[in-house]
Design brief:
The structure holds 2 protein chains of 2 kinds. By secondary structure, chain A is of the alpha/beta class. Chain A has 12 helices and 16 strands. Chain B is an alpha+beta fold. Chain B has a 5-stranded antiparallel sheet with strand order 2-1-5-4-3, covered by helices on one side. β14 of chain A pairs antiparallel with β3 of chain B, so a sheet runs across the interface.
Chain lengths: 356, 105
C-alpha cells in the first residue's frame, strides 16, 4: 500500500507556516503536512512520529534553526532537511550545508521560483529512504570511495552516521587508513562499509598519516561485499530492496576488482530500464550503445559477415567495448592508460557475470 | 567439361567478404578504395554510412571517438575518424587471423 510521506515545517512566523501549508498541498505526492512554531516542539514531534522531510527556518527565538538541525542530524540521520531562510548571508548557507542539509533556499527565491522549489521538495520526498550518503545524493559509500580513488585525490573523508563518526585517509587515490569506534585500519574500513546511510565531508589531506592499510581498495571492497553477501545469505531471506542493494554492491565490487570505469547495461527499446554502474546515468551513452548494436546488426545482415563479437572504440579519455549478451547491449568503459591486451577478456567476463 | 559449363554456370552463392581499405567523406561518398572491384560498391557505401553514423552518434553523446573496431565472426572493420569522414580497413577473419583488436585496441 502506498503511504503518504510526512513533512514537518518549522517556522516562528504563523503566516509563513500557512503559506507553506498551502504550497505543499500542491505537491503531486500529496504529503501530509504538519507545522510547528518552535524547535523544541519540532523535536518532540520528530520523536513521536516518522517524518520524511523537515523544512526549517533559521532565525527563531530560543532555539535557532542551526541548533535544531545539529540535533536532528545526530538523532534522525535518515530525515531529509531543507532550510528556508530570509537571511541572505553566505555564512549561514555554508554552515547549514556543513550540517548536512539537503537544500538551502532563501524565502525570496522560493516565492519567485515556487515551481522549482516544489520540484526539489518532490524529488527529496521521492528518494529512497534506505540508502545513500548525503553530500552526494543517492550514492553509496562504496561509490564515494571509488570516486575519490579513481580521481587519484588526497583527502580525509569524515563520515557520520548518527552519533558514529569515522575517518578514511586517502592519499593519491589510495586508501591508507581508516578509523571508527576505537578500531583502525582494515577492521575499521570493513565496519564503515556496513553503514548504509549517513553524511560525509571532505577534509584536507594529511600527508604525514602513516599507512595502516596496504591492500588495494578494490580488494577490500570486494572482500567486504563478499562478507556482506555471506551474512545476508545466512540470515532470513531479505526483502526485494535488500537483495537489490546486495546485488548493487556485488556489481560495484566486480567493477572495481576488474578496474573498469563503468558498465552500462542497455535493454532493447521499451523493454526495461538502463542500468549504469560506476558513473552518473548517461542516457546519451546508452543511446549510443543501442545505436551501435542496431547499426552493426544491420551491417552484419547486409554484408553477411556473421554475428557481432564486439565493438571496440577509443578516444583520448577512455576505451570502450560494446558487447551483446542475453538480448541486452553492454557498454564497458576503461581508463585510457590501461594496457589494451586483456581488456576484451575482462569486458566479456564482466558482462557474462553481470546478471548471474 | 565445356558442355557442362553451359548448364552449370558459375554463380557465386555466397558473397565474398571485402579486403582492403575504403576512404569515405563526411557525406558517406567513397573517395578512394582498394577493395576488389568485384565487390559491390553499394555494400561498401553501406559500410561507410554505418561507420559514419557510429562516429556521429558518439559525437552527439559527447564522446567523440578517434577509432572504432567492429568485430564480426568473419570480418573485422577498423575505422579511423578523418575530419568528419573515415578511413576504413576491412580484414576478413580466417582461421589464422589474430583475434585481438588491431592497433591501439
Amino acid at each position: 500500500m502506498e503511504t503518504r510521506h510526512k513533512i514537518l515545517v518549522l517556522d516562528d512566523d504563523a503566516d509563513w507556516l500557512n503559506l507553506c501549508n498551502e504550497m505543499f498541498a500542491h505537491l503531486p505526492s500529496k504529503p501530509e503536512i504538519r507545522t510547528v512554531a518552535s524547535g523544541a516542539r519540532a523535536l518532540a514531534l520528530l520523536e513521536t512520529e516518522p517524518f520524511r522531510l523537515l523544512v526549517c527556518d533559521l532565525k527563531m527565538p530560543r532555539m535557532d534553526g542551526l541548533q535544531v538541525l545539529s540535533i536532528v542530524r545526530r538523532r534522525f540521520p535518515e530525515l531529509r532537511t531543507v532550510v528556508l531562510s530570509g537571511l541572505e548571508d553566505e555564512e549561514f548557507r555554508s554552515r547549514a550545508y556543513a550540517l548536512g542539509v539537503d537544500l538551502f533556499w532563501l524565502k525570496t527565491d522560493m516565492q519567485a521560483n515556487s515551481q522549482m522549489f516544489l520540484d526539489c521538495i518532490e524529488s527529496l520526498l521521492g528518494r529512497d529512504l534506505e540508502g545513500g550518503f548525503r553530500g552526494i545524493q543517492s550514492k553509496s559509500l562504496m561509490d564515494i570511495i571509488q570516486m575519490e580513488c579513481l580521481s587519484r585525490s588526497s583527502t580525509v573523508l569524515r563520515i557520520t552516521r548518527g552519533s558514529l563518526v569515522a575517518k578514511l585517509w586517502i592519499q593519491n587515490g589510495e586508501l591508507i587508513d581508516a578509523e571508527t569506534e576505537g578500531t583502525c585500519g582494515e577492521a575499521a574500513f570493513r565496519r564503515i562499509l556496513g553503514w548504509r546511510s549517513g553524511t560525509f565531508e571532505n577534509m584536507p589531506a594529511e600527508p604525514g598519516r602513516e599507512r595502516a592499510i596496504t591492500k588495494p581498495v578494490n580488494a577490500l571492497l570486494l572482500e567486504s561485499a563478499q562478507a556482506m553477501d555471506e551474512i545476508a545469505d545466512s540470515a532470513d531471506p531479505g526483502s526485494i530492496e535488500q537483495n537489490a542493494h546486495r546485488k548493487t554492491i556485488w556489481k560495484l565490487a566486480l567493477l572495481t576488482r576488474e578496474g573498469a570505469e563503468f558498465v552500462i547495461a542497455v535493454p532493447p527499446e521499451g523493454q526495461g530500464e538502463t542500468e549504469t554502474m560506476g558513473m552518473q546515468p548517461s542516457e546519451s551513452l546508452a543511446k549510443w550503445a543501442r545505436h551501435v548494436a542496431e547499426s552493426t546488426r544491420r551491417l552484419s545482415e547486409r554484408i553477411e559477415a556473421g554475428p557481432l563479437s564486439h565493438v571496440a572504440a577509443h578516444n583520448l579519455e577512455r576505451q570502450m567495448f560494446v558487447l551483446n549478451q542475453d538480448n541486452k547491449c553492454f557498454l564497458v568503459g576503461w581508463p585510457p592508460d590501461v594496457a589494451v591486451g586483456p581488456l576484451l577478456d575482462k569486458s566479456k567476463k564482466l558482462v557474462s557475470s553481470w546478471d548471474s | 567439361m565445356g558442355f557442362l559449363k553451359r548448364f552449370f554456370r558459375s554463380r557465386a552463392a555466397v558473397q565474398q567478404l571485402p579486403t582492403g581499405s575504403v576512404t569515405v567523406d563526411r557525406d558517406g561518398h567513397i573517395v578512394t578504395y582498394t577493395v576488389s572491384s568485384a565487390y559491390p560498391k553499394a555494400l561498401l557505401r553501406d559500410i561507410g554510412l554505418e561507420v559514419l553514423s557510429i562516429f556521429s552518434e558518439a559525437r552527439t553523446a559527447q564522446v567523440p571517438l578517434a577509432e572504432i573496431s567492429i568485430h564480426f565472426a568473419s570480418l573485422n572493420i577498423t575505422a579511423r575518424e578523418l575530419r568528419g569522414g573515415a578511413v576504413i580497413f576491412l580484414l576478413p577473419q580466417t582461421a589464422h587471423s589474430p583475434t585481438s583488436t588491431p592497433s591501439r585496441l
